[in-house]
Amino acid sequence: MDRDLHRLWRLPPLAALALLMLVEANAGAEAPRGRVLRRTYDFKAAGRQMEYALYVPKNSAPASGVPLIVALHGFLSNPQQIVRYPGFTAAAEEHGYLIVAPMGYNTRGWYGSQGADNRLPGAGFRTDPQNLGALSERDVMNVLALVRREFRIDPNRIYLLGHSMGGGGAVYLTTKYPRIWAATATIAPALMGKTHPLEKARHIPSLVIQGDRDILVPVNGTRRLIRQMKKVGITHQYIEVRGGDHLFIAFRYFREIFAFFNRSPRKLVEAPPEPAAGDSERSS
Question: What distance, in Å, lies between the first and last C-alpha atoms of the chain?
């Protein structure tokens, strides 16, 4: 920063003034509303620019702040695709929610749910870093921190939604950061045999949607998750779709998802701490 200032003052006065005005205008510019945006930020730990998707509702945020959904995409999908699920942004607009969808480092990071090194049989790629799982998890928390700095977010209405791989990631991140989330919604959550300490998130309501004809994420695994939720005492709603597959059920239940979130503000009184964001210093 000091070096940049030194270079700035070496410019002719009018050029320096124009540059300062441009920087200040960009810093104060509001994000466009009512459309899906493609954003990037400098992910220092990964040494690369990282993409995320953002949707800002048209109406101004209430005094308490705008509710936020962090949306986690499925395996080999991406942030733009999940935000553009049919009906998602329309429901967010109707209910006044902001949506952000991180990449999770790449299309197959599993958001840390399969371990820090993410050596998942049959799903690894030669180009993946050894610590893919850790980077995938960190990316989610970086993006959350970025959005909380840029927008006035209601700290008691931060929700986590995930489909397939993203659903497994949502279960994991709920137990890893239980002081942040107000509620979660998982669609065909791919746990891949992993179990997570659900007792740490027993205070977080959960909506689970699963098709009984899903050949990618078999229904028996989700039924086992529901039994674990019951055992721990998690308030939950389970929608098992008769004849439901893996993909199309993700588009059909936004009315139920937003209704669930609307009646599930965070119950803890104290505001959750903002996650550490050493990697997320700037976005564009």
Answer: 18
